[in-house]
Specification:
The chain folds into two domains: about 90 residues, Carboxypeptidase-like, regulatory domain (Immunoglobulin-like, Sandwich), CATH 2.60.40.1120; about 500 residues, TonB-dependent receptor, beta-barrel domain (Maltoporin, Chain A, Beta Barrel). It is mainly beta and about 750 residues long. The two termini are about 30 Å apart. About 5% of the residues lie in helices and about 55% in strands. It is built from five helices and 41 strands.
């Protein structure tokens, strides 16, 4: 290990990437010193979910894990959703017992906890007083009474979850970084206002939407880049657009950010320093006191841009979360986020248009407040209610210094959202859900692209879903109706400029076109750990208010898109191997709202226009995550292969603006106090004309990125960890959008101390 690490260090020109060599050398010395804790066993974790034989999740169950060798016991209780977690248990073989009055005890003997790994346990409790030994069970049909906002069972193949531990292993600093290795993830990095856009399966315009603990937001894409992943429990991503309970602007998938929760007292401090004079300081604290659990976090970072291209950022991030169990049947969670700082927009390079290459633009200050509340109420076994509310306020100022005098434009907007979902168990095998959602977005003074053009939209939607279990077969279906009331809208713009539209009359006091969608799905649990799933959705996607296309010599609104999507696949879970899934998907879009590829010169500025065109994307998704092998090593691999097509004249031809292959892989290991995680990402070639001048398709993609993190635990229980992160090891200056190449190789060293 020492020789390999030294060889890696020799290959990297540390001075060339702006990393202080003495600090780099000091970190390597710490990483490579003899193992001080070799005599101590490693640690792992045990997590799981508890349900009864009727499918209801069991809260308050007592879980005990007893080490067979030392007889040491570790205990906890399951939370309201039936889940539990026991952290920092020594490696070894355990007897795990679950006790709940009125049920048979659940016993799993010889469960192996390995160093740095989490053992996942699924248990079903039987009503009886006779003891019974049960091993790990395959997933049962989803329990919608305890999780009203969850997607139907048939869509679970298209749901990815990324935990806080996984984001730490990846070296992720924010939410978008943490999603880079989910199946089909395609992240476009740019220096504009929304610095990173995530799409899956090639779906863009609209991009997937964001929610905080179930509370949806219309305008959130500029925020996830700044939210620290340290304060996130996990991120759930619906890669398919077939959501009926969630979503506002279109059938493009939903990214739900679940804030971190605490079951015991924990305090942590982290410090990092690295390339481009970047540093990050983070502190968090939380604990559970009776029926109240709380968490607090503060994160501050700064990073210099690539020198000659600007891009400096300074940001403070505050986090607070409180969970209250007011009654056995009522739980309320609240989350607050606050961002404050400044951010320079990066200048583009050729072949980007001159306006992006010479722009001296920044947001100073950036001020954003986000608040969400999630309440779950289940007064009786056959009915439950989940209510979410969210509020976001952006109070930013956009500063332009390209030409004197300096221009400061208010960039204010706010929104609030309400969602109510009612689950009713019509029978022990049939659950019906009714959902209603309301979103109100206001930009009182206009925003950067349409300063002085007030905008206000109100979106209403209702949904009805039904899920029925027939033993091993689960069927689901649903419908959704949505419509937007336009109080006022003057935010007409083409690809970031309102030039030429300042005199266009605003739309006021009218209803937008209604949007309908419906879905159907089926899941078959064939054997233990093996299931087959299929889902189908058809729906309408209205063009975003203010979108403009050129018809002849006049600007008009694009037509409504009609979308059909289908998923079919299977998943297999084996304790000795891991989890494997294979999914085929088909997305067909009639009159899809896309960039036209055509351009128009308005007041001397070349801009691109939207258009309607037919397109479809067929593909497969392969995903595998292994159980620990070879003394605690594990690996994951996911591959998305697509055949995107677009109608050109009278025939369908390949769409050059989408990649055909997206691959993510990683090897994670831990041995003798060291942890090492290697990640590989590949995106095949595609083209784009966005930001280009002339507005012609430019080659992008076709890149590999290799990242490596190496850590060293210096104390028992891994309370102290030092680490080194190597990002883009090969120094590949690839581009995902025209004119904004990656910064190349970067290093970051850090230390984390737990209390």
């Amino acid at each position: 290990m020492k020789a390999a690490s030294q060889k890696t260090a020799d290959r990297i020109n540390v001075a060339a990437i702006g990393f202080p060599f003495p600090a780099f050398l000091a970190l390597l010395i710490v990483l490579l010193q003899p193992d001080l804790s070799l005599a101590q066993p490693g640690e792992g974790a045990i997590s799981g979910a508890i349900a009864d034989s009727a499918g209801a999740m069991v809260s308050g169950a007592e879980i005990e894990a007893k080490n067979q060798a030392t007889q040491a016991r570790y205990t906890t209780t399951s939370k309201e959703a039936g889940v539990f977690l026991i952290e920092r248990v020594p490696t070894g073989d355990y007897d795990i017992k679950v006790l709940q009055p009125g049920f048979r005890p659940f016993v799993a003997r010889g469960a192996k906890v390995q160093s740095g790994q989490t053992l996942h346990l699924r248990a079903v409790l039987e009503i009886d007083s006779i003891h019974q030994t049960i091993t790990v069970n395959a997933p049962s049909p989803q329990q919608l009474m305890d999780q009203p906002l969850q997607e139907p069972e048939a869509l679970q193949l298209a749901v990815s979850s990324v935990s806080r531990l996984q984001m730490e292993q990846q070296g992720s600093k924010n939410i978008v970084d943490g999603l880079n290795y989910i199946p089909g993830a395609w992240i476009e990095t740019r220096g504009r206002k929304a610095k990173e856009f995530l799409s899956v399966r090639g779906q863009r315009y609209p991009y997937p939407e964001y929610s905080i603990d179930g509370a949806l937001f219309r305008e959130f894409h500029e925020i996830p880049y700044f939210i620290s992943s340290e304060d996130i429990e996990r991120v759930d991503v619906l890669r398919s657009g077939a959501s009926l309970l969630k979503g506002i602007s279109g059938l493009a998938g939903v990214i739900d950010v679940v804030p971190r929760s605490y079951e015991k007292r924990e305090t942590s401090v982290r410090g990092e320093y690295g390339s481009r004079n970047s540093y990050r300081l983070h502190a968090s604290h939380g604990q559970k006191l009776g029926k109240v659990s709380y968490g607090l976090g503060v994160d501050g970072f700064r990073v210099d841009g690539p020198g000659y291209r600007r891009g400096d950022e300074r940001m403070l991030n505050l986090f607070a979360n409180v969970s209250l169990k007011l009654l056995p049947s009522l739980t309320i969670r609240t989350t607050a986020l606050y961002l404050r700082g400044r951010s320079e927009l990066v200048q583009a390079e050729l072949p980007a248009a001159k306006q992006y290459r010479i722009a001296l633009e920044s947001y100073d200050p950036v001020k954003t407040t986000v608040f969400s509340i999630n309440a779950f109420y289940r007064p009786v076994s056959w009915a439950s209610t989940q209510f979410t509310a969210g509020y976001r306020n952006g109070h930013n100022s956009f500063v332009t210094d390209t030409t004197p005098p300096r221009k400061v434009t208010p960039d204010y907007d706010s929104e609030w959202n309400l969602n109510l979902t009612q689950s009713l168990a019509v029978s022990s095998r049939n659950v019906v859900r009714v959902g209603a959602n309301y979103n109100h977005w206001i930009s009182p003074y206009g925003k950067r692209f349409f300063a002085g053009r007030r905008s206000e939209l109100e979106t209403h939607s209702v949904s009805l879903l039904d899920e029925h279990s027939f033993g091993k077969l689960v069927l689901d279906g649903g419908v959704r109706y949505q419509r937007t009331y336009i109080d006022e809208y003057g935010a007409f713009n083409i690809e970031g400029t309102a030039t030429g539209f300042s005199k266009v009359a605003a739309i006021k006091d009218v209803w937008g076109h209604p949007e309908f969608s419906g879905s159907a799905g089926a899941t078959y649990f064939a054997t233990k750990g093996f299931s087959l799933r299929g889902s189908f959705l058809a729906g309408m996607v209205e063009p975003r208010t203010g979108a403009v296309k050129l018809a002849g010599t006049a600007y008009t609104e694009p037509a409504t898109e009609h979308r059909i999507m289908a998923d079919v696949g299977f998943s297999l879970a084996r304790d000795s191997i891991g989890e494997f899934s294979l999914t085929a998907f088909d997305l067909r879009q009639q009159d899809a709202v896309v960039l036209s590829g055509a351009s128009a010169t308005v007041n001397g500025v070349v801009t691109e226009l939207y258009d309607n065109r037919d397109q479809d994307t067929k593909g497969i998704e392969f995903s595998f995550r292994s159980q620990p092998v070879l003394e605690g090593h594990s690996l994951f691999l996911n591959l998305t292969g697509m055949r995107p097509q677009v109608r050109q004249q009278q025939s369908m031809t390949r769409d050059p603006q989408k990649p055909r292959v997206i691959l993510g892989a990683g090897i994670l290991g831990k041995r003798r106090g060291f942890d090492y995680n290697f990640f590989w990402k590949f995106v095949s070639a595609y083209q784009s004309s966005r930001f280009a001048d002339p507005a012609e398709l430019q080659p992008l993609g076709h890149f590999h990125t290799l990242n490596l993190t190496i850590g060293r635990s210096l104390s028992r229980g891994e309370r102290t960890r030092v680490y080194l992160e190597m990002i883009n090891i090969t120094g590949n200056h690839y581009s995902t959008v025209v004119g904004y190449p990656d910064y190349g190789r970067r290093l970051m060293m850090g230390v984390r101390q737990g209390f």
